[in-house]
Amino acid sequence: xxxxxxxxxxxxxxxxxxxxxxxxxxxxxxxxxxxxxxxxxxxxxxxxxxxxxxxxxxxxxxxxxxxxxxxxxxxxxxxxxxxxxxxxxxxxxxxxxxxxxxxxxxxxxxxxxxxxxxxxxxxxxxxxxxxxxxxxxxxxxxxxxxxxxxxxxxxxxxxxxxxxxxxxxxxxxxxxxxxxxxxxxxxxxxxxxxxxxxxxxxxxxxxxxxxxxxxxxxxxxxxxxxxxxxxxxxxxxxxxxxxxxxxxxxxxxxxxxxxxxxxxxxxxxxxxxxxxxxxxx
Length: 281
What we know:
five-stranded mixed β-sheet; alpha/beta; 10 strands; 44% helix
């Protein structure tokens, strides 16, 4: 039986799964984005973080990689080159993370597939292809509902001193930081989207506070308004979601679907569960 390596990578974290042998084994590394990393840097991550976790002498025949930023041919080539340099005899297929989400969530059935993680994206998938995709514009211009944008809104309110005393105290007790340090991380250091998304944890830990609930409800509602509503198929097909934001705030997604009379489908913390089903079937 062929040994397959399946990968699902966001900007923050990458999930890897080795399947086809006696057992299915899961691994994790930092996220890989060809927007921020070149082929050599990606190879170094693979050699430093993934190879030491793999069984010795494993012969990988096929690699199915789904990753953020892998929509343009240039970005696909960067990841393809890195993977092929580490596993030169494997058959490597690189696709974007939205296709991975669609296959994981919908299988071979039509539906709306959405990613809500560090970034956000959505599409209408007909069971084989992505037919419609409202373009993702990144965390500066778009990414509504994502961890990066929710974290950005949280920091914005903190820096504008819009928190009440209680929430201000909670924030300062959680993060020993300064305004200058925040601005340094956002504007001068690498991977600002990952830094911003890290503050989504504070949102999850402080549910029930009216400011937190407003940030979450407004942020996820913006995703529905700017993305879900753009697909006429949203009223006739189920809405599926994956990603850390979707999973941790799934109660709000359910409330929005009920409010707008839309059919809620699967919500997966990670696409890997569904990708295993897809590639093993």
